[in-house]
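As agreed, record copied across for absentees:
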Amino acid sequence: MTTIPSISDISQALAAVILPDTGRSLIDAEMVQDIVIRDTGVVGFSLVGAKTDQRDLLISQSKAAVLALGVKDVWVKVIELEPQITPPLQATNPIQSKGQGIRHVIAVSSGKGGVGKTTVSVNLAVSLADLGAQVGILDADIYGPNVPLMLGMNDFRFGADQLSKGADGKDIIEPAFNYGVKIVSRIFTQFGNQALAWRGPMLHGAISQFLRD
């Protein structure tokens, strides 16, 4: 049975996770921020300043500690304290004109299935996040999206709490996140894993909405 712990319960559980090099806990080192508890039994939080060689261990131990409280799932966002990527002086991509503030776009595509598009995209995104970049993945595979599966987010679904209002009053989708990467995918919508026969305008409209919102 899924239980809904308090922030205090989660903090106490994470206090048992010890940094290998200093002997301090994640809580004492103030490395845990933005704890979020959803009614679905999912807990999310940011892990700030984890060293690259300790990241996987700390994520694994953190998830195990919080899962022991009886929650359904744990999502961890890794945030670097000192980004190593210097932003460019001027953005040149077309999405900038829509007010999104995206500095770089890397497109991974192929006319053939099963050649590793998702594998390349996910590993590239997580690697850039490790270097300190703010990274998001737009999963443009409408018919067979696998990005959420590879990032451990296959059960996530957009709900009312994923919508907020932008400066222009329009709805903005708050992406899912894991491993320091924000994710937008068709699988997070009400259609879930079901097969779709979308063509032309519907397909284009879905991808445009992901970009726009």
User: Anything to note?
Assistant: The chain has a mean pLDDT of 81. The CA atoms of residues 60 and 80 lie 18 Å apart. Residues 117-130 form the longest helix (14 residues). The two ends are 35 Å apart (CA to CA).
